[in-house]
TrEMBL record:
Top-rank taxon, per record: Bacteria
Organism: Microvirga makkahensis
Pfam families reported for this sequence: 4HBT_2 (PF13279)
InterPro entries assigned: HotDog_dom_sf
Gene3D superfamilies per the UniProt record, alphabetical: Hotdog Thioesterase (3.10.129.10)
Protein's UniProt name: Thioesterase
Lineage: Bacteria, Pseudomonadati, Pseudomonadota, Alphaproteobacteria, Hyphomicrobiales
Length: 215
């Protein structure tokens, strides 16, 4: 395990212990407010949880369409670099691929649109591990307008671990990597699910079918 990954896990576990005392990273007043507010009202109060990896960027001109907002096709582009940065932070990125000849591919994705984004908006994107098994990783991204403080969209990936080949072929996540990801997922599981999460679809086939189909 690299020093940066170990530091990330230790810091996350420290915040997890702190969260066990406070309930979550939000203040009691904020938690009470959020319990009463509608999704529309919550957009004005949303902030990223510090236990999740965060990545900032600005909306570029080429993402803007004739309606003068970010076109729907670019919301997955908005999570590309945050996903890569999180994988590198977890030692599951560029160095891991070079060292092992393994990586992961996206099997499915979904975007839930909540509020539009405009040219020049400053975005903050969080990445969390929702769940994993011996081959798959389920990731959730929150796309936040940092300056205005609202949740603009959610995106999710289902990925599968592969050996690069050629040709690429699915394989089990190495034990040391899976152990590391499970520790990170334990931290992320303490973060409340974002508004709009009820609109997320279930990704992937039933686990029993998946196991039979990939033997």
């Amino acid at each position: 395990m690299t020093h940066s990954v170990a530091k990330y896990i230790l810091e996350g576990e420290r915040r997890l212990r702190a969260g066990a005392t406070s309930g979550n990273s939000r203040t009691p007043a904020m938690a009470k407010l959020m319990a009463k507010k509608s999704l529309s009202e919550l957009r004005l109060f949303y902030r990223a949880d510090p236990r999740l990896p965060q990545y900032e960027m600005a909306v570029p001109r080429e993402w803007i369409d004739g309606n003068k907002h970010v076109n729907a096709c670019y919301y997955l582009a908005a999570v590309k670099d945050p996903a890569l940065a999180a994988h590198n932070e977890w030692d599951y990125g560029v160095e891991f691929r070079a060292r092992t000849g393994q990586s992961n591919f996206v099997l499915e994705s979904q975007v839930v649109h909540i509020r539009e984004l405009l040219l020049g908006d400053r975005l903050l994107v969080t990445t969390r591990i929702l769940e994993l098994d011996d081959k798959r990783l389920h990731l959730l991204f929150e796309i936040i307008n940092k300056r205005e403080g609202y949740l603009a969209a959610l995106a999710q990936y289902l990925t599968i671990h592969v050996t690069m080949g050629p040709p690429p072929k699915s394989c089990a996540i190495p034990d040391d990597l899976r152990s590391r990801l499970e520790r990170i997922q334990a931290i992320h599981s303490q973060v409340p699910m974002p508004p709009g999460a009820d609109r997320l679809k279930r990704l992937g086939p039933p686990k029993r079918f998946f196991k039979e189909a990939t033997r």
